[in-house]
């Protein structure tokens, strides 16, 4: 930063020179006797004293202006220059939060919830174990955030995919296929959920249970819309179909995953969906009534 004091110093110099000249004019040496004589200005004020006072005042003003200009140049202001530093700090926090989550997910998937420890999760991130607790209150809290990240990604994917489908069967097919893929893509995390999370005594009242219900409620909404549109039998219980669908997917996928087998996704999806669609389809007389009502 450069100081912009040129204008100030020039002004001060001109004013000081003017005042000094004035002082010299009113204070002169008597060549006859070698003594200094003073002349009195307007209203009897001592002109030499007035000139000196003026110089001192100008010097004081100059230093004050210089100090203000210096402060403006040096002191950190609340300008956009300070914003990147705040953003950098916030970004570092977000990056560390994401790193801890990723390390926890890997640890839980490999060793299970009971086998994983905060110490090894912190070590994987290159931080002290106490730092983890600045972001998460406990290992249980870490597990919740890991599973929430998994569910929220899956929910967003399923809802976006179904929005592109125009029929009931196409929406259900997308949902079933995506659920099977999730079991294969996140095998270790699904194993953790089935073996440790869902079997815990406090699971029914836990936030993780709420996440699971939020995800599985998607198929309930599809079936309820199908009933309203006459595409699904009115006596069908959407929650019962939900349990049949997800229970079957879990059983089929878990069997393949636990035994190291290869699951044919498209074939499994078509067979399972064929059974469900046949069971929920309107009976012929119901179809006739719907068609007659539309006419």
TrEMBL record:
The keyword Transcription regulation applies. Signal peptide: none annotated. Residues 94-154 form the HTH tetR-type domain. It comes from Vineibacter terrae. Residues 117-136 bind DNA. It comes from the Bacteria. One of its GO terms (molecular function) is DNA-binding transcription factor activity. Pfam families: TetR_C_24, TetR_N. The keyword Transcription applies. Keywords: DNA-binding, Transcription, Transcription regulation. This is TetR/AcrR family transcriptional regulator. SUPFAM superfamilies: Homeodomain-like (SSF46689), Tetracyclin repressor-like, C-terminal domain (SSF48498).
């Amino acid at each position: 930063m450069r100081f912009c004091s040129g204008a100030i110093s020039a002004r001060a110099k001109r004013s000081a020179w003017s005042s000094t000249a004035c002082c010299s004019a009113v204070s002169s040496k008597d060549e006859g006797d070698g003594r200094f004589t003073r002349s009195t200005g307007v209203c009897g004020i001592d002109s030499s004293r007035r000139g000196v006072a003026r110089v001192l005042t100008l010097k004081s003003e100059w230093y004050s202006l210089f100090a203000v200009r210096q402060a403006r140049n040096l002191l950190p202001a609340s300008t956009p220059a300070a914003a990147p530093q705040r953003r950098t700090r916030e970004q570092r926090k977000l990056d560390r939060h994401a790193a801890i989550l990723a390390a926890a997910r890997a640890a839980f998937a490999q060793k299970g919830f009971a086998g994983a420890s905060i110490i090894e999760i912190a070590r994987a991130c290159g931080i002290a174990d106490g730092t983890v607790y600045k972001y998460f209150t406990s290992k249980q809290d870490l597990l919740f955030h890991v599973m929430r990240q998994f569910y929220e990604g899956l929910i967003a994917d399923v809802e976006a995919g179904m929005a592109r489908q125009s029929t009931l069967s196409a929406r259900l097919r997308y949902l079933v296929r995506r659920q099977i893929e999730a079991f294969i893509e996140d095998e270790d995390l699904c194993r953790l959920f089935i073996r440790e999370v869902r079997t815990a005594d406090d699971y029914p009242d836990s936030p993780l249970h709420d996440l699971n219900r939020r995800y599985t409620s998607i198929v309930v909404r599809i079936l309820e819309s199908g009933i309203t549109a006459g595409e699904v039998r009115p006596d069908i219980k959407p929650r019962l179909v939900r349990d049949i669908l997800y229970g079957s997917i879990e059983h089929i996928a878990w069997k393949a995953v636990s035994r190291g087998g290869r699951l044919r996704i498209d074939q499994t999806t078509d067979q399972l969906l064929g059974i469900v669609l046949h069971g929920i389809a309107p009976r012929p007389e119901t179809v006739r009534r719907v068609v007659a009502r539309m006419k």
